[in-house]
Write the structure tokens for this entry.
Amino acid sequence: MTASRAQFDPTDIFAALNRQRVKYLVVGGIAVVLHGVNRFTWDVDLSVELTVGNLARLAEAMRDLGFERRVPAPIEGLADPKVRRLWTRQRGMKVYSFFERQPPSRVIDVMVKPLAQFDRVYGRRVTVRAKGVSIPLVPVDVLLRMKREAGRPEDLFDIVQLKALKRMRTR
């Protein structure tokens, strides 16, 4: 599948992650959209299980799709808490990015800071299907917490929209 600025379609990314058996959750703008909020985004934000094996499978999925890492160090370094501390504190890194050199030039951002209790949250994931692909989303309550912590203007907008959607669904 292809994506463009007119139609951003990351389903091939999720299919590749699933084929490689990567344990991941979709977070960020794509999660907001897939939970039902109408808004635009141009990247894919992921929280992943930070084990060497899972990160290696993630890297393989990215290579299969032709994505390149933006960071000169292998992503498997995220499995080491000391390396994560170094990257976050000394280098200010928040995400480990992969990108496409060729159009549509999509970006995939993997959260460097691990999701608190990843396995527990993963057990509560919301799975949606798009074009026949299963996509694991972070639950809305966790997404709201992540958006509050980020606190950017777009995050504050997402919070309002997600809360309104949640109210509509509980009626």
Q: What stands out?
A: Residues 11-156 form a domain with the Beta Polymerase; domain 2 fold (CATH 3.30.460.40). Residues 153-169 form the longest helix (17 residues).
